[in-house]
Amino acid sequence: MSASSWLTNPMFGLALSVAAYTAAQAIHRRWRFLHPLFVCSCFIIAVLLSFHIPYSAYKVGGDVLTLLLGPATVALGVPLYKHFALIKRNLVAILVSVTLGSLTSILCSAALVGLLGGSREIMLSLLPKSVSSPIALEISRHLGGLPELTAVLTVLTGLWGSMIGRRLLLAMGCGDALSIGIAVGTAAHGIGTARLLKDSETEGSMSGFAMGAAGIITSILFIPIYLWLG
Description:
Elements lengths: L2 H5 L2 H21 L5 H15 L4 H12 L2 H6 L2 H6 L1 H6 L1 H26 L3 H7 L6 H11 L3 H25 L5 H23 L1 H21 L1 H7 L1
Helix pairs in contact: 2-3, 2-4, 8-9, 8-12, 8-13, 10-11, 11-12, 12-13
């Protein structure tokens, strides 16, 4: 098989992803603060740039793994069900916290772009960065932002939150599972949730619920902005 035909084969992207993630897991065991997805992404980018491989060639196989995101997201319902009683007891407090957290994220993003002199298009692309990628992309598209930029910022937000979120909260004295889960889920969506699940099922469950609630609440918060821009 020639090099060009191998690059267009779905097995190339799939094999590169698996190899990169395996290496990232080994690095994560040595340096726990480095999220495997962050290391994996950097490794894949380095390989594509070093060998001048177009992203479209990698994407053919990478999309195979994307199909697994659906079942993986649905699987979050299992720990949610197991900790439903805790969620029910604190439902009002959780929803208020997620609403305030989502609103704070939007306002801080707008303020940051404004202070740095960024364009309106960049601001609209940055605003929905704290919700899961599918929701963030649709919000950005409807607002007139750049979905590609939103995707990058959303992933970076999740990675950053997964690497320092829990450490920062513990340093601030927020040590209970409910507070950590709600904060990380609201700010760092699925990537942060996956990280918490590795350490605590309770924290991961709270984070998963907050992630879903944040997606709905953030979409509602953007309705007046969308109507104003329209």
